[in-house]
Specification:
This protein is mainly beta. It contains 4 helices and 12 strands.
């Protein structure tokens, strides 16, 4: 039996929630990573993925400029990087210069991959849709990568940015 409650109470039941790190280069060529919780697969053929980015984030400018982005599924070992990339703005900070995180060049787009991630997906921007206080970017996956070592994927496991593996 369901009980009607207000949205803020009901949404607390979403955990564990996936975490991704999206990366796009800005107009200066600086790769800007941002940690996001709102992402999904939107098509299997052709493969397409979407990310929702808050309108206030600098990443909006970077994705719009580059017309491409990487979606990385971070590993559990990347929890500190995920927190850092989600708490600093690329307007004022070169996040990769301030937080050591091994990257590799993307193969099909002008972006980078996160070397310690479970998987990376290179996406070309297909469309963007305003959605309240966010912009949803839909990208066509043009190249996919998995880590050569088996790693556990990072999730938000509770409120307050509590990160860890899914149980």
């Amino acid at each position: 039996m369901q009980k009607q409650v207000e949205y803020p109470e009901a949404i607390k039941t979403k955990y564990p929630e996936q975490v991704v790190i999206a990366i796009a280069k800005d107009r200066h060529g600086k790769a800007n990573p941002v940690t996001l919780g709102w992402t999904m697969i939107v098509s299997g053929n052709p493969p397409m993925m979407a990310i929702a980015v808050a309108k206030k984030h600098y990443s909006i400018e970077a994705v719009t400029h580059s017309e491409s982005f990487t979606i990385a599924f971070p590993s559990v070992q990347m929890a500190d990087a995920a927190l850092f990339f989600g708490s600093k703005s690329g307007r004022e900070t070169n996040k990769f210069a301030e937080f050591e995180c091994e990257t590799e060049a993307a193969k099909e787009i002008d972006s980078v991959l996160l070397a310690d991630a479970v998987a990376n997906f290179e996406c070309t921007l297909e469309t963007q849709v305003p959605a309240g206080d966010h912009i949803v970017f839909i990208g066509k996956v043009v190249c996919s990568h998995i880590n050569s070592e088996q790693k556990k994927r990072l999730y938000t496991v509770g409120p307050g940015h509590k990160l860890g593996p899914a149980s």
